[in-house]
Amino acid sequence: MSSEPPSPPAGLPPEILARRDRAKAWFEDLQTRIISELERLEDEAPAELYPDPPGRFDLRPWTRETGVGGGIGGHFKGRLFEKAGVHTSAATARFSPEMAKTMPGADKDPSYVSASISLIVHPRSPRVPTVHMNTRFLSTAESWFGGGADLTPMLAEQRSQEADDAVLFHKAMRDACDPFDPDRYEKLKAWCDEYFYLPHRGETRGVGGIFYDRLNTGDFEADFAFTRAVGEAFLGVYPKIVRHRMDEPWGDEDRAEQLVRRGRYVEFNLLYDRGTMFGLKAGGNIETILSSMPPMVAWT
Predict the structure, then answer these.
(1) Which of 113, 227, 241, 253 lies 20 to 30 Å from 69, alpha-carbon distance?
(2) Number of folded domains in the chain?
(3) Is residue 5 part of a domain?
(4) Is 170 known to be catalytic?
(5) Which parts of the chain have pLDDT scores under 50?
(6) At what angle do helices 164-177 and 184-195 cross, to 10 degrees?
(7) CATH code (residue 183)
(8) pLDDT of the residue at 7
(9) Does 180 reside within a domain?
């Protein structure tokens, strides 16, 4: 599934290129494993609740229109997962003067390299929470990792950090953080709650998780290991939550509540999400950037 790495600009340090290529290779491997697990869950879904044939991912390589690079968009429509996207990308490009002002190190040189994975899963069942995860490596004159994972239950009874799914999800994120810094989980959990907040609604998007950005402790190997731990934690915990919930029946009222909660998801992604804004301004693939939008949604 791997794509060729972008060609480097003249003068870019070989060490940075090697780091970007390592991150890119790992993100693409994680993409393959996540896709396999989501398709396995799609096969396992009970036919009495999900009578349609199991879906399969449609992998769509793409090339950047600006700079050098591209990625692999993994698009999905199925019976258990109404819509999902698991995407990777890598780039060698230059920030616009406007964006360079907001990026560490870009004031010295606006050129950058990046690699990332991002995913969104919108289940058909209102009983199964929506989930989002992304991690990335970005380097200008400075280098850092960023990303995180967060869970968004659709039904009121599940929208508490004390609910079963939230407890399980947060434990996985804590277990990813603790080996690196005993204080990291609480900091990143609070950052997630603050970031995924809809001020016009006065509420968070879901039950949170962790969020981090510009992670550069001075130890690349440790920071890369932490980013891998976040990806592995997601791959370990979300299928457990899906298997726990996918056999539960639901009714029209549950579906109506789900569609309204999905509206909150749209509002956040279009009004506040930095990743969406970055992708659109940096010449990313529109199809993958906006694949986070739910397939059906309602407002009341």
Answers:
(1) 227
(2) 1
(3) no
(4) no
(5) 5-10
(6) 130
(7) 3.40.1500.10
(8) 46
(9) yes
Q: Longest Cα pair distance anywhere in the chain, in angstroms?
A: 60
- Both tokens of 216, joined, read 């550069």
Identify the CA nearest to 9 among candidates 131, 91, 80: 91
| Percent of the chain with pLDDT strictly greater than 90 | 76
Does residue 75 belong to any structural domain of this protein? yes
CA gyration radius, the chain = 19
pTM exceeding 0.90:
yes
Residue 12's pLDDT is: 65
| Model pLDDT, residue 88 | 97
Predicted confidence at residue 275, as pLDDT, reads: 79
**Domain span including residue 169:** 14-292
Determine, yes or no, domain membership for 110: yes
Interatomic CA distance for residues 192 and 188, integer angstroms = 6
Q: Is residue 293 within 8 Å of residue 259, measured between CB atoms? A: no
Three-state SS annotation for the chain: CCCCCCCCCCCCCHHHHHHHHHHHHHHHHHHHHHHHHHHHHHHHCCCCCCCCCCCCCEEEEEECCCCEEEEEEEEECCCCEEEEEEEEEEEEEECCHHHHCCCCCCCCCCEEEEEEEEEEEEECCCCCCEEEEEEEEEECCCEEEEEEEEEECCCHHHCCCCCHHHHHHHHHHHHHHCCCCCCHHHHHHHHHHHHCEECCCCEECCCEEEEEEEECCCCHHHHHHHHHHHHHHHHHHHHHHHHHHCCCCCCHHHHHHHHHHHHHHHHHHHHCCHHHHHHHHCCCCHHHHHHHCCCCCCCC
Q: Which one of the listed residues 75, 87, 122, 132 is annotated catalytic?
A: 132
Q: What is the pLDDT of residue 119?
A: 97
